[in-house]
Amino acid sequence: MTRKKLPAVLEPEEAQNLLKQPNKRYPTGLRNKAMMALMLHCGLRISEVINLRPGNINLTKGKLRVESGKGNKDRDLALPEYLTDLLDSWRKKRPLGDYFFSTLKGKKLSNRYLQQMVKRYAQKAGLNKRISPHTLRHTYATQYYKQTKDIETLRRILGHSDISTTTIYITLANIDVENGMKSFKGFL
């Protein structure tokens, strides 16, 4: 049996440090922070962020409609209040276009742009891990499971059709237990 390597996740302090990197005084910094915050606080995939349309976000109700190209599993998510303010700031500055997050000329962003952007901010934050947009999704899912222990709701939030895909986060959350036991000195 071959064992899959566990995905990298960020510690809460690392995630906070990553989100401090974009300069919100500039439109691109505000947009980039909002995109990373959505991945870190709602577990969105890179394609879900890029394909988000203005009509999918209801800031008044704090709702987000995720249209997933993956298996056509659309889902509705609640937006944390602190995220609605950030998204509203971007909404007021964003150029008109078909996508909520776009270039400053209103064109669709590429997957590659998001991958390079996250990597660049991770380096700037001094994170010594291989960080990708999917790392932010893994970080969200791991923290959600650590705090709630509710694997079924997590499955629905992430848009997984099979619970076995979601169970990796049980393992990631339990690494703390393993590390705690290793550091225990015992009585001998």
Structural class of the helix and strand makeup? Answer: mainly alpha
Return residue spans where pLDDT drops below 50 for at least 5 consecutive residues. none
Which sheet architecture does the biggest sheet show? 3 strands, antiparallel
Radius of gyration: 17 Å
Order of helices and strands: HHHEEEHHHHHH
Into which percentage range does the β-strand content fall? 5-15%
Query: Helix tally?
Result: 9
Bulk shape? globular
Strand order of the largest sheet: 1-2-3
Overall mean confidence score, pLDDT = 86
**Termini separation:** 36 Å
Kindly state the number of beta strands. 3
Amount of helix: 40-55%
Q: What multimeric state do the chains show?
A: single chain
Task: Explain the overall architecture.
By secondary structure, this protein is mainly α. 54% of the residues lie in helices and 5% in strands. α6 packs across α9. It is globular, with a radius of gyration of 17 Å.
Features:
mainly alpha; 54% helix; single chain
SSE layout:
Blueprint: H1 12-20, H2 27-42, H3 46-50, E1 57-58, E2 63-66, E3 75-78, H4 81-93, H5 111-124, H6 133-148, H7 151-158, H8 163-166, H9 168-183
Antiparallel strand pairs: 1-2, 2-3
Summary?
This protein has 188 residues and is mostly helical.
